[in-house]
Amino acid sequence: MQQTQAAVITAFGEPTEVMDVPLPPMKTGSTLLRVDAATLCGTDIGRWKGALREGGKDQAFLKPLHLPFVPGHEICGTVEEAAGPVRDILGAEVRPGDRVISSYGHCGECYYCRVTRQTSFCAGVISYGHWQPEQLRGGCARHQIVPPSASLIRVPDGISPAVAASGSCALRTVMHAMEQLGAIESHETVLVLGAGPLGLYALAVAADRGAGRKLMIGAPERRLDVARGWGADRLLNLDEEPDAGRRVDWVLAQTGGRGADIVINCASGAAIVEALRMCRPGGRLSQIASSSGAEIGMPGALLFKGVRMSFPVMAEARHFYQAMVFLDLRRNDFPFDTMISSSFSLEETGAALAGMAELREMKPVIFPNAMPGDSVREYGRQTDGDIRPVRR
């Protein structure tokens, strides 16, 4: 095989184009994956629209976004070729036919790699979903090349490619957030802002770690229906309560006037002020959602509230591993597949991006090696077992 195909973003906000891409030479220690599933998230939408401009002095560890590029950073694939002996995160040799997800690559030599062990801040970090087509570092392609410095994590049997792909981003980010937050006590109330995949996974992990009460504010209603099935105790529909002050009052009413012990903001960077008002004095706030470069004003009084704030940026290899273990051990407690919405072929990647941007899709899944149309549904039955029909 000399080439593969990828869905390429050539203009911001426009339909993707499927292009033939030559397979680059395999470096020793790299792995060629046949992409089984690529799910989309809000970062993909921001990049597609051109609104998420990464890099610069404040984010020197991120590469600026340039056209054209292949989207998709939530990827589950099957090993087709390993260039030399390649081992997974636990030290077992990887062979063709193994199902895996991949952490990001890094240089292994810098201050962040060797001293602080925060590889997400490495200037040479190799994340996915924003590279030129010839790099094959995006999930919306028939193949992906995993760099030697990345860790491979096996996907447990019984976990669908779509759920595994979603776990490789949203859930591993939540695992990073939970590590920063520390233990959750049984008397504590956890408030999750945002009812998308990040918020749903945050809800599930908070419940699993013993939160006394789980509150969620988000929209639309169909996403809140999923949250009910995942164990939310109280829900507030953002569409029905557009006033921020009244939303704060709702949280205070649910918590004896104190505010939530822990707030996990998966909604937006701009919501951080509202999140601080919803958090009790001396509480904890995890700011997962990105600000997309927006300037955020904050009343000085909120800084004297004693709230301990944390900001998970991407994740380390251990968080990817923890995500797969959680999916495996808690599959009977949380219906993870209810998060996955419609399925699309590689040629329909643009439609999937548009559907998510318009909130018609919560977690669309691309099957790059399926054919367009009805065959996507058939492919989904073979690999996922419960894929919804394509929505156009």
From TrEMBL:
Membrane spanning residue stretches: none
A GO molecular function held by the record: oxidoreductase activity, acting on the CH-OH group of donors, NAD or NADP as acceptor
Pfam families per UniProt: ADH_N, ADH_zinc_N
Domain of life of the organism encoding this protein: Bacteria
Cofactors named for this entry: Zn(2+)
Enoyl reductase (ER) domain mapped to chain residues: 13-366
Keywords: Metal-binding, Oxidoreductase, Zinc
Family affiliation: Belongs to the zinc-containing alcohol dehydrogenase family.
PANTHER family reported for this sequence: L-THREONINE 3-DEHYDROGENASE
Protein name: Alcohol dehydrogenase catalytic domain-containing protein
Organism field: Fertoeibacter niger
